[in-house]
User: Which sequence fits this backbone?
């Protein structure tokens, strides 16, 4: 797996430091008083970020999961996005924090924000680990950002290519030939 990597762009140490700082920002926002939040997480890319983040958040919280898909098979450009599972809990009057791995065109988060908004929460905020600044749209508000990155397709720390590489502890770019190669699995 490591042979497939061209370049590590964010190390695991840098991620840990930034996730801690994001948690501190969230505690400032939500902690005084601790009224409780409901985290709505977009699977599967956010699972590593979510699990590190929540263990640094000493807040009352519930966690809800939604599944969105936009990249069919081995594509590295998004197709039509849909929410595959929209079984959200009762969010009326709740403080909702949407957590996603990365915002690129904003299509996924626009859909998730709209689905949450329909359930009449008190307030919606959104956190992403990564933001691709070249395409980030202005109509999808993001309140907490880990890192701004360039346009490259990245993997690791939850992010996949063709279902692979989510378990890499860092964020990396694959060798160009890997993006078209037949999967070994
Ligand atoms: P958007 O809907 O265009 O903002 O794309 C967001 C979704 O596409 C993310 O939640 C990821 O699942 C996926 N995605 C976008 N860029 C990348 C990338 O560089 N690597 C892996 N997944 C990505
Ligand atoms: Mg995603």
Assistant:
């Amino acid at each position: 797996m490591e042979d497939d990597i061209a370049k590590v762009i964010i190390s695991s140490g840098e991620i840990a430091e930034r996730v801690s700082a994001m948690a501190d920002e969230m505690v400032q926002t939500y902690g005084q008083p601790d009224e409780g939040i409901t985290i709505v997480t977009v699977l599967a890319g956010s699972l590593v970020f979510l699990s590190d983040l929540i263990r640094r958040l000493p807040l009352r919280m519930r966690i809800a999961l939604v599944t969105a898909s936009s990249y069919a098979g081995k594509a590295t450009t998004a197709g039509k996005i849909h929410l595959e599972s929209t079984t959200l809990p009762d969010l009326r009057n709740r403080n909702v924090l949407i957590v996603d791995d990365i915002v690129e065109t904003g299509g996924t988060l626009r859909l998730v924000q709209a689905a949450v908004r329909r359930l009449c929460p008190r307030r919606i905020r959104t956190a992403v680990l990564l933001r691709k600044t070249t395409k980030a749209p202005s109509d999808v508000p993001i309140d907490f950002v880990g890192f701004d990155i360039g346009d490259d397709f990245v993997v690791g720390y939850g992010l996949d290519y063709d279902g692979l590489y989510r378990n890499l502890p860092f964020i990396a770019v694959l060798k160009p030939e890997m993006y078209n190669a037949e999967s070994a699995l």
